[in-house]
Amino acid sequence: MKIGVYSNPNKDAGLKVQKAALDAAKANGLEAEPYNARGEYAFIVSIGGDGTILRIAEHCAVSETPILGVNMGTVGFLTEIEPAELDDAFKMLIARNYRLERRALIDASVDGKHYYALNDAVIRSGGGRMITLKVKVGGALIDKFSCDGYIASTPTGSTAYSLAAGGSVISPNTPVIALTPINPHTLRTRPIVVGSFENVEMTNYFGDAANIYIDGELRATLENGKSMTVTGWDRSVMFIRFGKLNFYSRLLTKLNSWSAPED
């Protein structure tokens, strides 16, 4: 069994945890190396936070390689273990004492080019001024928005930027796309949730060119009159889980800063 270890140097100073992961893997009889985008692995260890996982999510979806997230971030909603648990985690992996959790990606296309997002595809104003977006679902007009931007989110991403912008928390097994405006200049606009395979078209209707961010990374620009189309759920990422926390337990412990006690 061969594994790749991907580490965020901004979280893992001196790549000390990456080295510890490589040593622990080899001590347990696993073949291990620092992650290489061209490598073929049984699974990938991601050391950092949720943002670190987002950097390799698209590759792991295409190669169908499961991810084991090691938390060194703040929230760590997608991660599973702490650095001190690496040795035990490798033992459980070898014993196949784990389960795989699938998280769907959405497909965002601009000018015929496709981008896959685990969290969200976001249109944002690029010049500091509001833009006007026209949003259609299945060819039907939803509304026109003067706003700072617009978020198309997976259920996984519903606990990220979409939540901060006023969107709902959505269970990861719910086949939907959440649409959330960012600072809309209106009293009537609300987030909306649509089916996962509906065709969402967002057009830069008026104003300056906008930026398109895929999982937080600037990937394209959207000129006036151009559109981004979002649909989803053809691809997914697999996460290794050891059964310690389900989605709702994770939601309570990770996102509730006051940690309300369980009954």
Explain this structure:
The protein has 263 residues and is an alpha+beta fold. Helices cover 18% and strands 41% of the residues. It has five helices and 16 strands. The strands form three sheets. Strands 6-5-16-13-8-9 form a six-stranded antiparallel beta sheet. It has a six-stranded antiparallel beta sheet with strand order 12-11-10-7-14-15, with no helix packed on it. The protein is elongated.
- Going across the major beta sheet, what is the strand order? 6-5-16-13-8-9
Low-confidence stretches: none
Overall mean pLDDT stands at 91
Number of strands: 16
Specify the biggest β-sheet.
6 strands, antiparallel
- Into which percentage range does the β-strand content fall? 35-45%
Residues in helix, %: 10-25%
Shape: elongated
What structural category do the secondary elements indicate?
alpha+beta
Give the N-terminus to C-terminus distance in angstroms: 41 Å
Radius of gyration: 20 Å
The ordered string of helix (H) and strand (E) elements is: EHEEHEHEEEEEEHEEEEEEH
How large is the count of helical segments?
Answer: 5
Task: Give structural attributes.
elongated; six-stranded antiparallel sheet; alpha+beta; 263 residues
Quick summary:
The chain has 263 residues and is of the alpha+beta class.
How are the secondary structure elements laid out?
Layout: E1 2-7, H1 16-27, E2 31-34, E3 43-48, H2 50-63, E4 67-71, H3 86-94, E5 99-110, E6 113-117, E7 120-125, E8 131-137, E9 140-147, E10 149-153, H4 161-164, E11 176-182, E12 192-195, E13 200-206, E14 210-214, E15 217-222, E16 227-241, H5 247-255
Parallel strand pairs: 1-2, 1-3, 3-4
Antiparallel strand pairs: 5-6, 5-16, 7-10, 7-14, 8-9, 8-13, 10-11, 11-12, 13-16, 14-15
